């Protein structure tokens, strides 16, 4: 069965997703996830997500292809989009239309997410104790929790 995929074209997005692809491959190979100083905030956010009914997926489900050909699984992207009620943008739009791409935009006003934000969310979740025990990532239905994990994942990436 062939799974439809999204190919990312923007160079900065491809570079970031390539970094994540390598990190995810390391996680899949069983390498330990590094500890961070923000674990308390991470664990609190993840526990809030787990308090509600969730949809889960594994890291193997997230992407397909090699590091040179980065593709996200359309089914996972659609699950995120539907569950968190945000539109997926394969590339960031140019300009600053109504602050739609402003990182300081409050979560309740967000309307979309990007591939890098999805990867940030997943990478943050992979640092949680729940992930370490279950090897599953839960998809939240709350935009503020999604944004919080994106921010934590972005800090881990940097």
Q: Which key features would you list for this structure?
A:
158 residues, two-stranded antiparallel sheet, 7 helices, three-stranded antiparallel beta sheet, disordered N terminus, alpha+beta
Summarize the structure.
By secondary structure, the protein is an alpha+beta fold. The chain is 49% helix and 13% strand. α2 packs antiparallel against α7.
What does this structure look like?
It is a single chain. With 158 residues, the chain is of the alpha+beta class. The protein has one domain. It is built from seven helices and seven strands, in the order E-H-H-E-H-E-E-H-E-E-H-H-E-H. Helix 1 packs parallel to helix 5 (115-126), helix 2 (39-50) packs antiparallel against helix 7 and helix 5 crosses helix 7. It is globular and about 35 Å long. The termini are far apart. Residues 1-9 have low confidence and may be disordered.
Mean pLDDT: 75
User: Helical proportion?
Assistant: 40-55%
- The rough form would be described as globular
Quickly give the structural class.
alpha+beta
For the biggest β-sheet, the strand order reads: 1-4-3
Radius of gyration: 15 Å
Order of helices and strands: EHHEHEEHEEHHEH
Strand content: 5-15%
Main sheet overview: 3 strands, antiparallel
List the domain count as a whole number: 1
Q: How many helices in DSSP terms?
A: 7
List the helices and strands and how they pair.
Elements: E1 5-7, H1 11-28, H2 39-50, E2 55-57, H3 59-62, E3 63-64, E4 71-73, H4 74-84, E5 87-89, E6 112-114, H5 115-126, H6 129-134, E7 137-139, H7 143-157
Parallel strand pairs: 5-6
Antiparallel strand pairs: 1-4, 2-7, 3-4
Helix pairs in contact: 1-5, 2-7, 5-7
